[in-house]
Amino acid sequence: MENIAAKLLWTFLGLLIVLNWGMLKTSLIRKIVARVGGRYGIRWYQPWINLIKLYGTRGQLSHGVMFYLGPVFRIAGGIGLFLFMPLIFGDPRWSNFAFAGDLILLLYFKFFGMLGMALGAGEGGHPYSAIGVSRGLSQYTAVEIPFTLGIIALAVQYDTLSLTEMVAAQQGGIANWTIVTNPIASAALLFSMLGIFMHAPFDLVKAPNEIPIGPPTEYHASYLGVLRTNAAILHITEAILFMNLLFGGANNWIELIIKTFLIYFITVFIGVVFPRFRIEQSVRFFFGVPLILGLLAIILIM
Amino acid sequence: MSEETKHNNQPENTEETNKFPKAHLQKRTVYSPDGEKIEVDPLQDYYLQDRPERRDPRYRAVEKFLNWARSESLWILGFGTGCGSIELPPLTTPRFDAFRFGIAMRPTPRQSNLFIISGYLSIKTLKRAIRSYEQMPDPKYVVALGSCTINGGMYFDSYNTINRLDKYMPVDVYIAGCMPRPEALIAGFNKLKQKIKEGRAEGANEYVQRFDEYKANQKQIIKDWNMPDYNW
Hints:
heterodimer; A: mainly alpha; globular; B: alpha/beta; Rossmann fold; two-stranded antiparallel sheet; 31% helix
């Protein structure tokens, strides 16, 4: 597209839609879990109220420069991931800044926010933050190996590093989706998806009721607001990534919303069924079946 | 380590050990492996030592909107004191379900804006309650649950509990009873919401305004004051 201003405007609009859909998804999931438990649950607009309250909190203090930069890095990681993610297939307005090698860049951005948050939470000085950070980084290291192996298998299969071309190759019905054409790499990616979304049984980073809330223990007011904003963007963007990789992308916004919700719901569903893993159990899990599946996918595609 | 030496290593509870700042918090000089001299002041690293400031509402219309958001999003600090804390968990059950009123539990004082003192406060707990209260970012609200927080209740002549909570921190809403049921708690939350929406719940500013008075009351009852005066 020749007009960069129009491009930026469309991207910003897409970001707003994804942000609000992420907030709505949060309340929908909580509402579903509440209804299963026989409760009425939170109001559907509660996440927006929480966000307004957090940004409007008067008292705010800082533990240092890195503490301040932690949430900034985190949201930079989330928005960076969004910027290079093609949303709707076949529509140049909604393909953001996707380019030929965007898959490699996306892998980078996924880790960027996490590292920034680790440094920031470390400066907060709370012992629970440090425990949460060490758990998060060791688990993510274990998750990333099957995830990267699966992505390399797909890159070899489709002979491209561009997400848009991968989606293009999956058009024309469910029979062309990666989950059907390459089930082994898909299985490795879906296993690592559980670790990436960090729901139970892999929620020991925040570990409610154990280390109260992990890395963000000291974050409050607008720091927490930024983290919440980022969580809404990041969850949906990661779900879009898996939708593009495995489930044939989306041709319109309705399809995108339904697919991302179902993809996210897989992890929630598994989360309510299984209890929490300890860190060594979770690392051992990802070095087991998912890693073997990832290696198998590479060997079979060669 | 034998049982005896273990016992000897315990700090004795004397005037000397309870002094603030303790030895490991004293200012000192350390040398790095390269011989570099580093001044360490742990007090500066561990505690924030500014005297609190008043943070008044600025723009009336904005503040009205924010007060609405604050009242509809009350995050309770998960800090149970006394027997009343047994009345808090039922709030999350299907029978009472406080989530539909925008009420949620938070595990850390930094993220919560509502402190429920749920029953009697022993002197030992008062110290922790003050630290937690001061760490909460303002605007913050206090709900006092049960008769014990009003006049001491059945512990009115106890040597180890305080009788009137509002001598030590500003209280927004009292819920009387021994014990008040969760319905009473929800009624109290609604009262608090109304108060916040009217802009009358400025407890944090009141605490700053009468800071010296509150500190004098607190220090009168807490004999082993081994923490800094400001905890935020």
